[in-house]
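Give me the fold.
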Amino acid sequence: MYLTFVFIAALVLPVPIMIQAMGKRLSPYRVVLEGIFAGVIGSILIMIIASATGNGILDTLQESVRYMAQTLAKDPMFGDLLGKETTETERVQFFTQVYGQAADLVPSTICIFTAIAAYIEYTILSRIVKPGGALALKMPRFREFDLPRNVIIGWVIIFLLSWVLAKTGIKIGDLLYANINALFNFVFCLQGMSVIFMFCHKKGAPKAIAVIIILFFLFTGLGKIALLLLGFADVMFRLKEKLS
């Protein structure tokens, strides 16, 4: 129940904050960032309340993971899939690890969900909200999406700190490392996607071609790495500027 409230907060709270910020004629990215902060902070507060009432979301998810792992391990179909020589205990451990890793990424998943929701909401609001009688500033085209170069420094520092903490063997260290890694992978992949859109734009190719290329990359292991590296390279060397 609380997890549902978390995602509702992530979806709803950015809207009033962004409407208020639009009246200040701030940069669209700044407005969206304020909306993301509102959604994430609201989600965190709900998670704190859930924990205080003895219904910690992460603990509840881990219990669900253990139950699902035990249920799936008894299913003959999964027994055949993983090999008849595997014991039920081994299958439980396998499913616990797989679903446990997914449950550990709930914090970063909430942040990513909030970011996507806020971006879409701003795009819609900018067409209908008129602060001071004029339409709000429109969101720049996605092909113009650019992370600042200093994000690399921040990424290296945060990544190293979370990695060191993870190596101490503390559970929260592993959790922090996994979520920080997921968040930065997400933003660098977005940067890589923007390069593909810019390239297709400069070549006169329809947007559908860029979407197909990106979907192909997202659904292949090497493709995801390629998007990540492309985004990283664009931040470092400003590939889109050279395309322009």
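The mean pLDDT is 86.
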